[in-house]
Structures are given as structure tokens and as C-alpha cells.
Amino acid sequence: MTRFLAHLILAFALAATAGAAQDVRIKDLVEFDGVRGNDLVGYGLVVGLNGTGDGIRNAPFTEEIMTNLLERLGVNISGEQFRPQNVAAVLVTSTLPPFARAGGRIDVTVSAIGDADSLLGGTLIMTPLTAADGQIYAVAQGTVLAGGVSAQGEAASVVQGVPTAGSIPAGARIEREIDFSFSDLQRIRLALREPDFTTALRIESVINADIGRPVALMQDAGTVELNVAATGAISAAHAISRIENLAVDPELRARVIVDQRSGTIVMGEDVRISRVAVSQGNLTLRIEEAPLVVQPSPFSDGESIVVPRSSASIEESGQPGMADIPGGTSLSDVIAGLNALGVSPRDMIDILKTIKAAGALHAEFVVQ
Predict the structure, then answer these.
(1) How far is CA 64 from CA 9, 45, 68, 177, in A?
(2) Backbone phi, then psi, for 331, in 5-degree steps?
(3) Angle ∠(219,222,226) on CA atoms, nearest 5
């Protein structure tokens, strides 16, 4: 029950926070058209591993890229038996942030793709990072900071975290810029992270009221278009800097979030339940095996026989009962009613699923 009460306190605290009208900046509610990152990926090698690299027989691509790298450096190893244990093939991923300029640095993530045991202490060799268009936008190199550790003895091993993945802070240098001129935009679309007609209308109204004329227009639940020229700003950047800090009270959808792994349930203030009756009880099924061994008579040719003996029983435990929840019930009443039945968090999840299936729970039901 202690864990259950903790979950209830968390639900009440979040609901109370959501219940109070909170103004949020426009920059925290929308994504501006053109202001976005670009994903980068590359294929490279991590060297300097202490015998924890790829087994070349199981990862022949590691030997191939290592051979090509050495040949580009002027080392000819054709026909040689190349079996290093301190090299690992990796995929390098990163995100090129908006308005990134050549010469800047970005963080990268390094992940082994072979059978390497650990990347701890390794060094990533110069790896080009390409975008979806196939162009190279950055080059990564540096010491890998592994996210875990592993140790192995003669008859046992232990692994903590994920030693086959790591990161390199500021490990890539930007070599090419995205060809995009934000200052030339005449109209900018504001894309809501949580599409909602009411929130979009409020954003439109707040912007028009601040500018003093209709410069923003709601196109749909997820888009508000801003006419940059009508704002009187000298550029799109100046227009965005003027409106992005305007406060808007967003409209929140009624939503129930359930985490089955931890048994956590979080419900918003606007969740309502129609009139419904809830009955909850626990059934315990027990099956016990007590086999009996029958021995043959002495000096006979018989064999021992195992006679199976099983006993099965069903017991109802807990505090079964019926709770009548009236229509229009709020969050606090729902929690109090379910808590009166003495249900556990996981039983409460099943009850909420059943209420939703019955059509009595008027909210979006999200199971994680």
C-alpha cells in the first residue's frame, strides 16, 4: 500500500499542476518552419581497445574497412593474416542543429555493430558523417566515453550499463552548412507540438493583439501562419524574436497515462467518468504436485512407478466489493472510489482499461 499511496500522491500533484491555468511561451508550444535539425550518420572504426574489439571471423567487414584505411595511409597489407583484437566497427550518429555554421562542433554517439565486448578506452578514427542527401556535413574523431563497464573472469562475467555504446562530446566538426536562408522567408508556419484548435486560435489571437493587426491566421489544429511582411519587422528573425515570448494558455486534452512496468497512473484534471459500477476481487489458483513412488516387491522383476497426485483449489482473497461511481465524476472522486476497494496499482490499471472499454471513461487512454 505504501507504493500505491506514493503513486496516488504523484497523480494528485501532477493533476493539481495541470489544473491551474499556466501561461506558456509560444516558443515552448510550437516549432517554427525551417528551424529544425538534420540527422547525420557515418560508418567508422574505434581502435585502441584492450582486446575487447570485434572478432574478425564473426565481423569480416571490420577487417575490410581496416584494410582500406591502412592502404589509404600507405600501408600495404594485401595477403597478410590480419587478426587484431583491439578494433571495432561502429556506426556514428549525430544531429546537425539549425543554423549550424562551418567550424562549429557537435556531439556524436558511437555504437558497435559487430561482436565487440566494450568500447571503453577506444578512439574513433576520422569518420565522415552524411545526411539523407548523401553529402558530408561533418567529420567525427575523438576518444569514446563508454556508457558502461564489463569484467570477465575464468568462469564468470559481469556487465553494468551498455559498454558497447558511448559518446564523444563535441566530437564532430561541421564542414558544410545547410543551404537555407531564413531571413528570406515572407511567411512562416508555426507547427503546434500538440495540435489543438483552441490552442491554435489562442496563439493567433495573442499574436494579432500584440502586433495590432491581423498578421497571424490559424490554418488548422496544428498550424498557424505568420505574415512576416505585415508585422513590420525588418526580417523573419526579428518577427520571430518579437512573438516567441508571448504567453498563451494552452488547452489540454483529457488524458490518462498508464505505465504498466512501474504501475504508475497519471490522470489530468479534465478526465470524467460516466455512471458506472466497479467490482473488484482477487482469485488465487493453487496447484500442488505430490507424486507417489511405488516400489516393486523385493527380488521381483518389477519396476518403480511414479503415480502422479495433484490437488487444485481456487481461493478468493482481498476485499471484493461494488463501488457505484456517479456520472461526471472528477479525478479525485475516481481515485477515492478505487482506493476504497483496496485495489493495487496493477488492478487499478485493469479496472481503468475495462471502464474505457465500456465507454464510460471520457479521455484519451495511453498505455506505455
Answers:
(1) 57, 11, 6, 31
(2) -60, -50
(3) 50
What pLDDT score does 8 carry?
Answer: 41
- What are the structural domain ranges in the chain? 23-34+180-248, 38-174, 255-367
Strands 216-220 and 223-227 turn out to be antiparallel
> Is the entire prediction scored with pTM above 0.90?
no
Give the pairing of strands 310-325 and 276-289: antiparallel
DSSP assignments along 297-348, one per residue: PTTSS---EEEP-EEEEEEEEEEEEEEEEPTTB-HHHHHHHHHHTT--HHHH
Q: Which helix (H) or strand (E) holds 109?
A: strand 105-112
Asked if the model's pLDDT at residue 134 lies above 80, the reply is: yes
Mean pLDDT of 253-276: 77
Sign of the CA dihedral with 178 first, then 179, 184, and 189 last:
negative
C-beta separation of 366 from 255 below 8 A: yes
Q: Which fold has domain 23-34+180-248?
A: Alpha-Beta Plaits (3.30.70)
Instruction: Identify the three-state secondary structure at position 360.
Output: coil
What would the grid cell of residue 366 be?
495511453
What integer best gives the mean pLDDT of the chain?
A: 77
The 10s digit of each residue's pLDDT in 301-355 is 767 777 666 555 545 555 555 555 555 566 556 666 666 666 677 777 777 787 7
